[in-house]
Amino acid sequence: MPSGPPGSSPAGARDPADSRNPEPFRGLKAVAEAPVQALDEDVRLMLAFCSGDAAAFDALFRRWSAPLLRYLARMLRDAALAEDLVQEAFLRVHRARDRYAPDARFSTWLYRIATNLALNELRRPQRRARHESPDEPGGPALVSPAVGPDDAADARRSAERTLGLLESLPEKQRAALCLAAVEGLSYAQVAEALEVSESAVKALVHRARSSLADRLRAGAGGEE
Amino acid sequence: MTQIARDCLGFDAELSALIDGELGAESLARVEAHLAGCARCRERLDELRAVDLALAALPARVASTDLAARLARRIAVEPREQGVVAPRGAARRAPPRRARRIAAWLAVPAAAAAALVLYLALRPTPAPESPTLAREPQAASAPSEPAAPAPSAPEARLAAAAPRAPEAALPAPEPAQPAPSAPSAADDLEALETEELAVVLDLETMQDLPVIANLDLLERLLHEGAG
């Protein structure tokens, strides 16, 4: 599966660097000139959907709903809201069927839609503060490899802490880090999803990772 | 905190790019050469990698079993764009905000007028039933059977999509499936969209307004009133 969603496998089981899209991003011009089917299976599916193949839309949903949900849940820390936005993102894909032009990877386009939805949500003045636990009902979670209750409790605490740290980042840093480090997008793709330059992405990812590294280290020091 | 040597300043960003596989050959060689002789930067690289490990260890969210079904329902009530708004492939521009506000004020009376037109046109024939979940070819009605949610085609298909059946299909999003033996009512409706409704409404603006779904309700109320 050369160009499948990066997150079809559990996040914990995957090295983000390995899951990077196999083909380097070649820029919009190159993408537009390349044969689309050879470029991106998702683009092929989207074009099939645009031509009336409803099953292609189903396939896109199956391929991308889980990665998108993971991304939005990290961004918003609210599983129910993340699901709503997944739904909204696919609704927009559906609405775009009459004017879709394959001028970028489908995944990049989808993440851009999702990012805009998430940023709008985060900027809503009346947004309710919500600090969701990883195991909160309404957002069923799979705690990865933990076995015993102690391990599970440790994993939950650790996940809560990581989510809290992530939430403390400025929203664009958070988005850039999640897209690059978890979703496996290249900096060029992240740049397109966030509508910023590639050098800005490099700085955003670096600041986010560096800041979390400092806080994780400080936290680890505090626990000892 | 570790004292950062002057040579190491600015290397953090390179280390982050290294983790993400974003360094070109030349930069990679330079960074690796530096790492070979700098314990501080190796330590920092480990700290940065720990962030990715922490993120990867977060539990995976599992979508609710009815997410596909909810999306299907949203799609089923989507106003149709094709054939009403613009030719296929034409970019749709959002009207200016002011135009949207005006359109919003006009929408309710306009919808009532449109409902009246629809009612008059459709009175002699029974309301068409939706044959499949494939979008009905209308802009002005939403699946709106109120009290008795009989296992209509949409519901049946949604039910099939809901329980975690990975192969369960979303609603056929594309329209166009002409009902095999559908009576003329749907055709009339289709014709009315462009010929009649477009006179009264700016449908491009209308398509984002949920009020359009009220046409069905108005039609039903009028029908009941007449009956």
Unreliable residue stretches of chain A: 7-33, 135-145
User: What structural class do the secondary elements of chain B suggest?
Assistant: mainly alpha
Helix vs. strand class of chain A: mainly alpha
Approximately how much beta-strand content do the residues of chain B carry? under 5%
CATH superfamily of the largest domain in chain A: RNA polymerase sigma factor, region 2, helix turn helix motif
Major sheet attributes of chain B = none
Give a written overview of the molecule.
The complex is a heterodimer of chains A (224) and B (227). With 224 residues, chain A is mainly α. Chain A is built from ten helices and one strand, in the order H-H-H-H-H-H-E-H-H-H-H. Chain A has two domains: 105 residues, RNA polymerase sigma factor, region 2, helix turn helix motif (Rna Polymerase Sigma Factor, Chain: A, Orthogonal Bundle), CATH 1.10.1740; 76 residues, Orthogonal Bundle (Arc Repressor Mutant, subunit A), CATH 1.10.10.10. In chain A, helix 5 crosses helix 6 and helix 6 packs across helix 9. The termini of chain A are far apart. The relative contact order of chain A is 0.13. Chain B folds into two domains: 51 residues; 151 residues, no CATH class. Chain B is 52% helix and 1% strand. Chain B starts with 10 loop residues before the first helix and ends with a helix. About 48% of the residues of chain B have low confidence. The chains are: A mainly alpha (224), B mainly alpha (227). Chains A and B meet through helix 4, helix 5, strand 1, helix 7 and helix 8 of A and helix 1, helix 3, strand 1 and helix 4 of B. Strand 1 of chain A pairs antiparallel with strand 1 of chain B, so a sheet runs across the interface.
Summed up:
The complex is a heterodimer of chains A (224) and B (227). With 224 residues, chain A is an all-alpha fold. Chain A has helices spanning 27-33, 36-39, 41-50, 54-76, 79-95, 106-123, 149-168, 171-182, 187-194, 198-223; one strand spanning 141-142.
